[in-house]
């Protein structure tokens, strides 16, 4: 995997300005709001979505100062979803640190998530571009629907691959898509470029989530900052399990169905053996690489530049990471 600087190097100054801007925008008259918001924003995230905004703007020769608040608002929306997700999932660790709900409780976490959402929309209003506002109004709505859809599928072993793809497109890929599409809009790109960059973000988000779900069964807990098998423990049937149930024996499928319905880690070892035996991990990996390749194909809409190369590298790194 390429070092982090490989995709940050060309926008290092913008990235530094982004981090300063984020801290400035976390101000609140309520000390606990600032404390929790700063904790979660500073918890070691890679800032992937705002980085996509910055790279896309540069790839389209956009030097509009509004690219910094645009990249910040994407991070605020993402962080708000994390705060809410951890409450819903009853998570106690993220990126190797205590979750906000584990430190301060569910109520403050939900409310600070709301604060970050509304601060993001304040930034959108300040940018003053109706098309960008429309993109994020739709994206936040779709993301919320995706989270509810995933919640209704908890402990449901009958979810199909198509239904799974619908969920991850909504809950993960949608914000990637909004990031790259809004950057193209801000850059004054052609409608074709806006559409292609939206598709790039969508495919990249799908690749990222597929890799994430793969790592849940073969990743390194220390590197990921979470435990192997967390999805199974929460009763989530992601693609490795769906594929294993589809191609495994009836006995193997029955055991996985039982594990999903029950949740917890009682059946983790036999489940790991089954998904390995059935090639479900390789199948998931191939799907992730397929999405990454589709993302890179969308970049043909951009002029040749080092920034375009970094966006292609971004897609490669999404499926070659170990955390």
UniProtKB/TrEMBL annotation:
Enzyme class: transferase
One of the Pfam families matching this protein, by short name: polyprenyl_synt
CDD domains listed in its UniProt record: Trans_IPPS_HT
A biological process from GO: isoprenoid biosynthetic process
Domain of life: Bacteria
Cofactor(s) this protein cannot do without: Mg(2+)
EC numbers, comma separated: 2.5.1.90
Keywords for this protein: Magnesium, Metal-binding, Transferase
GO molecular-function terms, A-Z: all-trans-octaprenyl-diphosphate synthase activity; metal ion binding
Catalyses which reaction(s): 5 isopentenyl diphosphate + (2E,6E)-farnesyl diphosphate = all-trans-octaprenyl diphosphate + 5 diphosphate
Similarity remark: Belongs to the FPP/GGPP synthase family.
Function: Supplies octaprenyl diphosphate, the precursor for the side chain of the isoprenoid quinones ubiquinone and menaquinone.
Protein name: Octaprenyl diphosphate synthase
Organism expressing this protein natively: Oceanospirillum linum
């Amino acid at each position: 995997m390429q070092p982090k600087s490989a995709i940050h190097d060309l926008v290092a100054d913008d990235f530094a300005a982004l981090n300063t801007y984020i801290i400035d925008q976390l101000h609140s008259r309520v000390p606990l709001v600032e404390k929790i918001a700063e904790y979660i924003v500073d918890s070691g995230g890679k800032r992937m979505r705002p980085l996509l905004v910055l790279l896309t703007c540069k790839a389209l020769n956009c030097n509009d100062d509004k690219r910094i608040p645009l990249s910040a608002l994407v991070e605020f929306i993402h962080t708000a979803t994390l705060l809410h997700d951890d409450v819903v999932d009853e998570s106690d660790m993220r990126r190797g640190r205590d979750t906000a709900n584990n430190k301060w409780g569910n109520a403050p976490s939900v409310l600070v998530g709301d604060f970050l959402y509304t601060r993001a929309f304040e930034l959108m209003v300040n940018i003053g571009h109706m098309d960008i506002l429309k993109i994020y109004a739709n994206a936040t709505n779709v993301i919320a629907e995706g989270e509810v859809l995933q919640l209704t599928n908890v402990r449901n072993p009958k979810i199909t691959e198509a239904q799974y793809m619908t969920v991850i497109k909504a809950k993960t890929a949608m914000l990637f898509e909004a990031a790259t599409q809004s950057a193209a809009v801000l850059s004054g790109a052609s409608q074709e470029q806006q559409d292609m960059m939206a598709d790039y973000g969508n495919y990249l988000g799908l690749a990222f989530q597929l890799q994430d779900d793969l790592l849940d069964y073969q990743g390194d807990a220390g590197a990921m900052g979470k435990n192997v098998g967390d999805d199974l423990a929460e009763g989530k049937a992601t693609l490795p399990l769906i594929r294993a149930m589809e191609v495994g024996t009836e006995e193997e499928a029955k055991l996985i169905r039982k594990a999903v319905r029950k949740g917890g880690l009682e059946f983790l070892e036999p489940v790991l053996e089954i998904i390995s035996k059935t090639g479900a991990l390789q199948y998931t990996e191939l799907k992730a690489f397929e999405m990454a390749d589709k993302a890179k194909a969308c970049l043909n809409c951009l002029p040749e530049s080092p920034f375009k190369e970094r966006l292609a590298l971004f897609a490669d790194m999404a499926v070659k990471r170990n955390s």
